[in-house]
Amino acid sequence: MENCLFCKIIAGEIPSTVEYEDEYIYAFKDINPVAPVHTLVVPKKHICCLDGLCDEDEALMGKVMLGIKKVASKYEECKDGYRVINNCGENGGQTVMHLHFHIIGGTKLDEKLI
Ligand code: 5GP
Ligand code: ZN
């Protein structure tokens, strides 16, 4: 999609530090890490957010979730656990409107909202 930052990153038009890539997903380091591991996992298909999912994305979302596990398993720092975060929409604090999941780890995450 035109003018989508993460679509441009997926296309290689904007540089990123790629951590994993396959037919369905792209994983890259967050530019502003909040923890020793902070990687974003995105579907290659442009979907604005969780609310933008439709029934035909069911299988793709399985690939995304398994991809998150695969990416996290690459990090020694995540062997004792990690957190996966999705911010959805304005009230959820989403700033880039291309569905993405944050993998955060490498430290004990103390601030728990839930
Ligand atoms: P959100 O706030 O939408 O859940 O997360 C967007 C994330 O994208 C933020 O953590 C932010 O640091 C990251 N980000 C924004 N622009 C770029 C960029 O150009 N490159 C990379 N690698 N990450 C970015
Ligand atoms: Zn996009």
Order of helices and strands: HEEEHEHE
* Class from secondary-structure proportions: alpha+beta
Q: Tell me the span between the first and last alpha carbons.
A: 34 Å
Which compounds are bound in this model? guanosine-5'-monophosphate, zinc ion
Oligomer: single chain
Helix content: 10-25%
Strand content: 15-25%
What's the overall average pLDDT, rounded?
97
The CATH class turns out to be Alpha Beta
> What is the CATH superfamily classification?
HIT-like
User: Looking across the biggest beta sheet, what order are the strands in?
Assistant: 1-2-3-5-4
- Total number of beta strands: 5
**Largest sheet properties:** 5 strands, antiparallel
**How many helical elements?**
3
CATH topology-level fold name:
HIT family, subunit A
Count of discrete structural domains: 1
Radius of gyration: 14 Å
Low-confidence residue ranges: none
Q: Specify the CATH architecture.
A: 2-Layer Sandwich
Describe this protein's structure.
This protein has a single domain, classed as HIT-like (HIT family, subunit A, 2-Layer Sandwich). It has a 5-stranded antiparallel β-sheet, covered by helices on one side. The model has no long low-confidence stretch (mean pLDDT 97). The chain contains 3 helices and 5 strands; from the N terminus they run αβββαβαβ. The chain is α+β, with helices and mostly antiparallel strands. Strand 2 and strand 3 form a beta hairpin. The chain starts with a helix and ends in a 9-residue tail after the last strand. The structure holds guanosine-5'-monophosphate and zinc ion (ZN). The site of zinc ion (ZN) has 6 residues, from helix 1. The site of guanosine-5'-monophosphate has 13 residues, from strand 2.
